[in-house]
Amino acid sequence: MFYALIGEDAPGALETRMAVRPQHVARLEVLRDEGRLLLAGPMPAIDSPDPGPAGFAGSLIVAEFDSLEGAEAWLRDDPYVRQGVFVRTTVRPFRKTLP
Questions:
Q1: Taking a C-beta distance cutoff of 8 angstroms, is the pair 5, 75 a contact?
Q2: What confidence score (pLDDT) does residue 38 get?
Q3: Model pLDDT, residue 57
Q4: Which pLDDT score, from 0 to 100, does residue 69 have?
Q5: Concatenated DSSP letters of 21-83
Q6: Cα distance between residue 8 and residue 81, in whole Å
Q7: Which residues of the chain have pLDDT under 50?
Q8: CB atoms within 10 A of CB 41
Q9: What is the pLDDT of residue 4?
Q10: What integer pLDDT is reported at residue 5 of this predicted model?
Q11: Phi-psi region of 85 (alpha: psi -120 to 50; beta: other; left: phi over 0)
Q12: Cα-only R_g, the chain
């Protein structure tokens, strides 16, 4: 089943986010290569594709996992969580309807 993994950035987390981004993206690439990643990306803090120093409000990942617990465990081990980029995380079942 698909799950939506949402992380909300901590205030002032941009520098840490950028420092650990390569490890975060590497984990997403594994999901992609396994055919389990539906989409992933950051949510800019301002209405701009490149928010610059305003940074990001968080990230959204939609991927396939065996269970809610599996999705939660995957997110707990993400560098953005371990390094304090995300101040809060949410994992919810997701049912793709379109396209």
A1: yes
A2: 98
A3: 98
A4: 98
A5: HHHHHHHHHHHHHTT-EEEEEEEESSSSSS-GGG-EEEEEEEEE-SSHHHHHHHHHTSHHHHT
A6: 10
A7: none
A8: 11
A9: 98
A10: 99
A11: alpha
A12: 13
Q: Is residue 60 within 8 Å of residue 5, measured between CB atoms?
A: yes
Its pTM stands at: 0.96
Which residues make beta-bridge pairs with 62? 4, 39
Q: Which residues, in sequence order, are CB contacts of 42 under 8 Å at separation 6+?
A: 56, 58, 59
| Dmax (CA) of the chain | 37
Are the C-beta atoms of 51 and 2 separated by less than 8 Å? no
Structure tokens at 47: 């209405």
Task: Give the total residue count for the chain.
Answer: 99
Instruction: Determine contact, residues 15/96, Cβ cutoff 8 Å.
Output: no
Residue type, 77: D
Pull the structure tokens for residue 38: 């539906």
What's residue 2's pLDDT? 98
